[in-house]
Write a structure and sequence with these properties.
This protein has 205 residues and is α+β, with helices and mostly antiparallel strands. The chain is built from 4 helices and 8 strands. β4 and β5 form a beta hairpin.
């Protein structure tokens, strides 16, 4: 689903479907959708894998090429072993520091990382099952902003005052963030199990 399609559904949620009297401009709703997508990315980023070349004798790995990075989940070095070798690591800006294990010799380091979700007119990386959640978050942002702006225009949808908008928006945002925390917690358990099974033990976490 692209941003145009999501905007149409968002207008339905907001009961803002009359093109002759839109309460929100397209650009406003797009901004709220992108904000909700960024929040989703913080809890459920787009899973990525990258193979980066190390520098012989150095534990530092340049990760500047991992654009729109949200997090690093795990690092495999040397890459391709069975069970996998998953050293501890720290991230300092665009540098990943391997804290233990073998000192790199210039061979490949495999990085498992999370990226911001894309959302534009050409499409989206947001899973279809989460599109409604992003729309709910965007509706909450839009309504809360409408209430905070104290704009009192006639609305045939039933919400008529800035206070009504603010209260409705707060409820939508409460639902949005509650679901993000729930899904994010499940994702952390999944990721932890994935890399434990790949070779790390409970005692080394």
């Amino acid at each position: 689903m692209n941003i145009t399609e999501m905007r149409t559904l968002l207008r339905r949620d907001l009961r803002d479907t009359d093109p002759a009297g839109y309460r929100w401009a397209d650009e406003e709703l797009d901004r709220h959708l992108l904000r909700a997508a960024r929040e989703l990315s913080g809890y459920l980023p787009l899973a990525q894998t990258a193979e980066l070349t190390t520098s012989a004798g150095s534990r530092e790995v340049d990760i500047a090429s991992l654009t729109d990075r949200v997090c690093i989940e795990a690092v495999e070095y040397p890459a391709g072993l069975s069970p996998a070798s998953l050293p501890g690591f720290q991230v300092r800006g665009d540098t990943l520091l391997l804290m233990d294990g073998e000192v790199p010799d210039g061979s490949i380091c495999r990085v498992y990382w999370g990226k911001l979700h894309a959302l534009d007119t050409s499409g989206s990386t947001i899973p279809s099952r989460l599109s409604d959640l992003v729309i709910a978050g965007a509706a909450g942002y839009a309504a809360a902003a409408q209430g905070a702006g104290a704009i009192n225009r006639v609305n045939t949808g039933g919400i008529q005052t800035p206070r009504d908008w603010a209260e409705w928006g707060e409820k939508r945002l409460a639902f949005f963030y509650r679901e993000l925390r729930r899904l994010g917690g499940k994702n952390r358990v999944r990721v932890r199990r994935l890399y434990l099974e790949a070779g790390r033990t409970e005692d080394t976490e």
